[in-house]
Amino acid sequence: MISPFIRFFRTRIYTAISLLVILLAVGVLGFRLLSHFSWIDAFYMTVITITTVGFGEVQPLDPVSKIFTIFLILTSIIIVGYALSVITEYILSKNNLEELKQKKMQKTIDTLANHIIICGYGRNGKQAAKKLLAYKKPFVVIEKNKEVIDKFESEQIPFIYGNANEDEILLEAGIDRANTLISALPSDADNLFVVLSARQMNTNMRIISRASEETSYKKLKFAGANNVILPDRIGGDHMASLVVVPDLIEFIDNLGIVGNSNINIEEIVVEKLYDTNVSIKTIRDLDLRRKTGCNVIGYKNGDGEYIVNPEADQKLEANAKIIVLGRPEQIKELNTVYNLH
Q: Strand, coil or helix: what is 170?
């Protein structure tokens, strides 16, 4: 994706070059038609006139040719001056384009709060970003490979160029204001270092880390990770489950999301559904099935305990969450009714 800065400079350069070509063409044709110079002499006169080098004329000019030459000189001063300024500005600014882009991106990142930080934009990092985009969750990606950033950077995915192991880079990503960090680096040692640093810099944030080896699981948990994901083990379990219970796994896969319009499962904080300070409601009181078509399939109380398929009489207390299931259009209706997004 071409940066707006690059497009801006390219447009100005193309304009300057076009004006120079037009000026050159007008000069050559003018000297050719008015003074009856040969094409070579007309081109020579045009160049020395535009560049104001002060060389002698090919032959004496008549009054009409002199007036044309005056016009050409005055016009060339404006056009050549403009072209030189544009080209000079481009040459001087070319090395600063990345800095300007980064400053603009940093301004956007500085406005984020309660956002997610993704460390590493490999296979797992991309999948995490895709899901967060679908759920419209604010996030920023830290990536040390410049080629990856140039390829995937967009207004939707803010990148920070640097090593997530460095505290300064984590601070640029707003780790002190973030509520979650996903460490998806390929090396378990790097993930361990990031988890340690992140936990020290923000003791309240949730940290999710990737691990390649099972031996790294306990180390990452001890370092401060709330959740440790082993992609290889999950992948193997998934493939085996497709043999044992294929229809069930296929159904669960369909609960996943592919894009903005295919979200069919949501986790909702109870306080977003009603005011818990006024009264305590039950799942039956909410009547989500009638209002939106969605079903409540899970409940998580303030202590973090889960209830699968809760009863209709389940009280929805403060600091609790419910998990709802529905078709994409039903989830959309839910979000609209309760203004969740």
A: helix
Maximum pairwise Cα distance, the chain: 105
Q: Which residues of 180-201 are buried (b: 16+ CB within 10 A; e: fewer)?
A: bbbbbbeebebbbbbbbbbbee
Contacts of 170 (CB under 8 A, 6+ apart): 117, 142, 164, 194, 197, 198, 201
Integer-rounded Cα Rg, in Å, for the chain is 32
Strands (E), the chain: 116-119, 139-143, 159-161, 180-183, 206-210, 227-229, 265-269, 281-282, 295-300, 306-308, 315-316, 321-325
* CA angle centred on 321, ends 120 and 293, rounded to 5°: 100
Q: Which letter does DSSP use for residue 212 in this model?
A: S
Q: Which residue has the tokens 């780790």?
A: 175
- At 95 the pLDDT is 59
Alpha-carbon distance 282 to 280, whole Å? 7
CA atoms within 13 A on the CB side of 149: 20
* pLDDT above 70: percentage of residues in the chain: 91
Measured in Å, how far apart are the chain's first and last C-alpha atoms? 28
Dihedral sign for Cα atoms in the order 309, 315, 320, 325 = positive
Distance of alpha carbon 221 from alpha carbon 268, whole angstroms: 26
Pairwise CA distance, residues 193 & 166, whole Å: 9
Tokens of 44: 């020579």
Read off the pLDDT of residues 220-272 as tens digits, 9 standing for 90 and up: 999 999 999 998 888 888 788 878 888 877 777 777 654 455 678 888 999 99
pLDDT in tens, 38-87: 888 888 888 888 877 767 777 777 888 888 888 888 888 888 888 888 87
Closest CA to 197 of 212, 209, 215, 213: 209
At 81-106, the pLDDT tens digits run 888 888 777 776 665 666 777 777 88
pLDDT value at 1 more than 50: no
Distance CA 175, CA 172 (A): 8
